[in-house]
Structures are given as structure tokens and as C-alpha cells.
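[Automated response] Your request has been received and processed.

Submitted sequence:
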Amino acid sequence: MDESRTLPGKERLILEMLSRSSQMFGLQMVDESAGVLKRGTVYVTLGRMEAKGLIASEQEPPQPGAIGLPRRFYRLTALGERLLHAHAAFAAALAVGDRS
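Generated structure:
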């Protein structure tokens, strides 16, 4: 199947998490994913989703005296929200079709 026409499970999970929260940072998503998202790959997935226009990000303002890079917060875009709703409707239609 053409991957551009599907919603991979990790991307769907991220969209669902962001739909329940105004914004989240990557490691927060890893912690809340019950092991589905991994530290080593979450940012690759987030970058791909941002390039598709499904999510947007903003870097946290640097804190005085903080060590390391500031966190990047992610939020759902209107396109991401529409895709999530469309995917849910499609899955529901398939489930209804399975009962006939």
C-alpha cells in the first residue's frame, strides 16, 4: 500500500496525544506512550510529521542558568486534527463494514 495514503501507528498515537493536550514535548510523549515511542526515534517521527504539516513546534525560551538545549514543544495543527478525525471516521466505517 502507498505509505502516503496511510497513517502510521506512531503518528496516529502522537496526534491522539496532542489532541488531548494543548502541547507536549518529545520525552513527555515517550513517557506517556506506554513503551510505543522510543527516545531514539521520537524526534525523527516528530520531524517527519512537522514536515507534513500535521504538527507545529516551538522552542521553549532558554532559562537563565539552564544546562543543555531548551525543550521543543509540539502542538497539533488544523491539518493534523482533520487527519485524525478522518482516520477515526474511516476506522469506524471499516468496523461497521466488518459486521455485515
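Summary generated for your ticket: The two ends are 25 Å apart (CA to CA). Residues 6-59+69-98 form a domain with the Arc Repressor Mutant, subunit A fold (CATH 1.10.10.10).
If you did not submit this request, please reply to this message.
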